[in-house]
């Protein structure tokens, strides 16, 4: 007979000082000293991704105990959402306060995996803050939502370095969560939750009452 594990009421975890100490608390911009705020977080078994208010993505590799930094060229703006994915290659999608979305295809030391850092941009569709990102399990599809209710689908061809994006859905309120599985995109907004069937391009609302 299998033993029943005892229930745990409290469990304490120590702060990740090794991670926090690798991220500066301030940076110098000309004559100004700017405080760095941590604005977004995602984790998986391989990485811890932390977005910041200065537009810098800090990516900590758990296996190598190394911190790497990635940023957007041009204007320094706050990162609002990050989403990791481990499939054949390791990917991280990043969204910003102005609506920029970028995908980083990470370098791997494993044989047959990606050997050069590559970046893909979702350009010119979002015009406001990114509030949600969702991957397909194989890394070929990325969905991004913003605080104006727009949802963009990006098809990635990692072998040829191509990213094609299009607007697939517009909701009347801010997107708060996205999740994708088996050709169905779950969309939660400030007002309602819907299922978007990507093949039929049809929408089915979950429940009947609007969210207050």
UniProtKB/TrEMBL annotation:
Query: Which SMART domains does the record match to this protein?
Result: WD40
What is the top-level taxon of the source organism? Eukaryota
Q: Which InterPro entries match?
A: WD40/YVTN_repeat-like_dom_sf, WD40_repeat_dom_sf, WD40_rpt
What GO terms in the biological process aspect are recorded for it?
protein exit from endoplasmic reticulum
GO CC annotations?
Answer: cytoplasm
Q: Which PANTHER family match?
A: RUBY-EYE2-LIKE PROTEIN, TECTONIN BETA-PROPELLER REPEAT-CONTAINING PROTEIN 2
Name by which UniProt lists this protein? TCPR2 protein
Specify the species: Eudromia elegans (Elegant crested-tinamou)
């Amino acid at each position: 007979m299998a033993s029943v594990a005892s229930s745990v009421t409290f469990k304490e975890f120590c702060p990740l000082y090794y991670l926090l100490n690798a991220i500066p608390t301030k940076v110098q911009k000309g004559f100004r000293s700017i405080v760095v705020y941590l604005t977004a977080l995602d984790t998986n078994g391989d990485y811890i991704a932390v977005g910041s208010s200065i537009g810098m993505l800090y990516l900590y590799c758990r296996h190598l105990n190394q911190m790497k930094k990635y940023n957007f060229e041009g204007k320094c703006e706050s990162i609002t959402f990050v989403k990791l994915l481990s499939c054949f290659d390791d990917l991280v999608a990043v969204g910003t306060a102005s609506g920029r979305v970028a995908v980083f295809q990470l370098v791997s030391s494993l044989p047959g995996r990606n050997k050069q850092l590559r970046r893909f941009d979702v350009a010119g569709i979002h015009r406001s803050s990114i509030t949600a990102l969702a991957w397909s399990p194989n890394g070929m599809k990325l969905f991004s939502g913003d605080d104006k209710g727009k949802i963009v689908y990006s098809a990635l061809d990692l072998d040829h370095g191509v990213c094609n994006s299009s607007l697939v859905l517009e909701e009347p309120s801010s997107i708060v969560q996205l999740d994708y599985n088996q050709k169905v995109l779950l969309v939660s907004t400030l007002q309602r939750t819907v299922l978007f069937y990507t093949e039929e391009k049809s929408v089915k609302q979950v429940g009947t009452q609007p969210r207050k």
